[in-house]
Amino acid sequence: MSLSLFKVKQTYFEKLFTSSSTSNTDINSSSNATNSANKKIPKVLLLDNITTSIISLSYTQSQLLSNDIILIELIENHKQLSTMKHLECIVYINPNSTSIKHLLEEMKSPHFRKYHVFFNNVAGKNDIEQLAVADEYETVDRVLEIFQDYYILNDELYLNNSLSIAKSVNPVVEQAKSLTSLLLALKKSPIIKYESNSIDLKKLSSELLYIINSNSNNNLFDDLNQRSDTPPVLLLLDRKNDPITPLLTPWTYQSMIHEFLTIDKNVVTLPDNQVILSQQDDSFYNESMYLNYGDLTNKFQKYVEQYKTETKQSSIDNLKSQNLAELKKTLTKFPEYKKISVNILTHLNLISGIDEQISKQQLWDIGELQQTIICDLDNQSDIRNKMIQVLENKAISTVNKIKLVLLYSYKFHNPTDLSLFISKLENETVAAPLLTQTQLELIKKFSTLFKSHDLAFGSNQDQQDQHRNRQGLSNLFTNRKVNINNLFNRNNANHSGNENVYLSYTPRLNQILTNLIKPDTASQGSNPHPNLSTLYPEVVKSQYGDTSTDAIQDLIIYFQGGVTYEELRLVHEFNQTGNKKYNIIIGSDEMLNSNQWLTKMYQMISKSNKSDQSIDGDDFGISSQDRQAQLREIL
Questions:
Q1: Three-state SS string across 72-136, please?
Q2: Member of which family (predicted)?
């Protein structure tokens, strides 16, 4: 199957709820099965704390009701359930020890007539045997494994359960199990590629290899790639190798929502209500999620004007002049008009919230300077002067100043300038609040903790064009009215090929994907991916051999340590421009915005202080020699 997470979601919905209505343990009772299909049987859904989030994110309440789910309960509360022998029960749980324990207790004293048991990942043989023993009343109709131990946020984006993994005794194993579940859902047995300088990824890739090879014995990974001419690839990346992308202010719709309002599993909490962002159910969001701010405002204005035009035709005066057939046709559109008006109000609130934060934080200026620093759009001396102007502006928040200082220190490595910037941040006449000790240590250690990489900013010619054509840099801190359309007009001949200053930066992921998917454009040599190590599961070796130089068709990316919506946008653009030659999805353990990334880095600093040593391999800052020594020990 293609790498469509929405298809996975739909397939498992049908397995969980549609097929449960027609299942029957007696294969000879075809007439009973037919009657069961025709007669809808109300059911109870028993979940655990892991599958509750998966179900709520993937399926709506109306979908569940339409499939006869009349009650949803947590399996941990099974002792408080009322006995309802007229109902059937769908059990959907993670096969962890706690949930299995509750399930066995429920089977010994069943509250319902029949049970359809589903595990959202591979269940152990011992768990199945214990379930068979506990089913004294023979109420279990069937036991199935479906592979959904992750969150599906949209068609190209998944997320594993970071809280569950963090609480685990062995987080690496839990991460590997979640990724294994995804691979089985997609029916892919991949080559594993990971960044060689990451001890964490070395551990994770080894665990994945072990799971895939050990599960080949029970045929879980056999024949998964039958329809693929080339082996799929699982690409493991470490956030530490690109600390810059999460620091920058984004300028596309979905990314800005998360940056300024925060998206938590597709839910945005506003002061007066909660908004659910759905790529499938909200056509405006689906069409606008990757648009820059200028194109977004134009599209929203057209959306509103279209609504006004259509509803004007349905005004009272127009209704009076219509014949009965036209009147009936118009009236049937009223529910749709109501839905559109609610949707318009939703996006108006989101866009207004974004606009308010941009103005409040002076982000037209800050964002432009961020891009100028990291993309070499001006000389260091001029950038330094602009930095001083920002740091002496008390109206700009300390957090935004810290982001700029981190970018500058990463780019230029100038201790003298850094000392000057720190003195500004410690001056109470221009900084409020003052730096905390953790923030100060992060600034001092940032450029050494995160070694500079060859970030992909485009060709030298592109950068020269950007420098020549950038708009507003000379007047960066003058009072000006920002023309959004000029800033973001993709067709403006005065802009370079990289569009405009606000969209100059390209995440490091772009170069990695280009090298993988288009090896002919990458550097020539025996190893086109010198920073990636490769592991071949036995089932892949037997089908394709232990070397593969063919173009990649299916690529599954996992970012350990967090991923951004801008990197998702990049993946989407690759998929759109690939003419279906390849399919890419991306996932992580966390969706990051700039403040969340800062918080993670503060935690790293605090952890290093507690251990009274520099940050180790698990946290980011070991030297190249130390990394190599540790890798040799593992190998």
A1: EEEHHHHHHCCCEEEEEEEEEECCCHHHHHHHHHHHHCCCEEEEEEEECCCCCHHHHHHHHHHCC
A2: Belongs to the STXBP/unc-18/SEC1 family.
321/34: higher pLDDT: 321
Q: Which residue pairs from 344-350 have beta carbons closer than 8 angstroms and sit at least 24 positions apart in sequence? A: 344/303, 344/304, 344/307, 346/275, 347/284, 347/285, 347/288, 347/300, 347/303, 348/300, 349/270, 349/275, 350/257, 350/261, 350/268, 350/270, 350/275
Compute the mean pLDDT over every residue in the chain, rounded to the nearest whole number: 84
Per-residue pLDDT tens digits for 132-142: 999 999 999 99
- Tell me, yes or no, whether 95 and 156 share the same domain: no
Task: Tell me: do 9 and 126 sit in the same domain.
Answer: yes
Report, as an integer, the average pLDDT of 83-94. Answer: 96
Q: Please, which pLDDT band fits residue 221 given cuts at 50, 70 and 90?
A: confident
More confident residue, 625 or 345: 345
CATH number of the domain that 49 lies in? 3.40.50.2060
Residue 392 located in a structural domain: yes
Q: For residues 103 and 559, what is the distance between their CA atoms, to the nearest angstrom?
A: 34
One domain, residues 12 and 102: yes
Q: Which domain holds residue 441?
A: 363-452
Distance CA 190, CA 187 (A): 10
DSSP 142-189: EEEE----SEEEETTEEE--HHHHHHSSSHHHHHHHHHHHHHHHHT--
Taking residues 296-312, report their average pLDDT. 90
Per 3-state DSSP, the chain is made up of helix, strand and coil in percentages (nearest 5) of 55, 15, 35
The pLDDT of residue 333: 64
**CB-based contact 124:154 (threshold 8 Å):** no
Domain count across the chain: 4
Percent of the chain whose pLDDT exceeds 70: 78
> Which residue, among 440, 510, 547, 536, has the nearest Cα to 194 in the 3D structure?
536
Tell me the backbone φ, ψ of residue 405, rounded to 5 degrees.
-65, -40
pTM: 0.86
User: What is the pLDDT at residue 313?
Assistant: 62
CATH of the domain at 545: 3.40.50.1910
Q: Is residue 634 part of a domain?
A: no
pLDDT at 448 over 70: yes
Looking at the fold, whether 164 and 107 belong to one and the same domain comes out as no
Last residue of a domain, one of 106, 128, 148: 148
In a domain, 630, yes or no: no
Domain boundary among 452, 468, 489: 452
Q: Within the chain, what is the greatest distance between any pair of CA atoms?
A: 85
Within a domain: residue 12? yes
State the DSSP code for 474. Answer: G
Same domain, 95 and 113: yes
Count of positions (residues) in the chain: 635
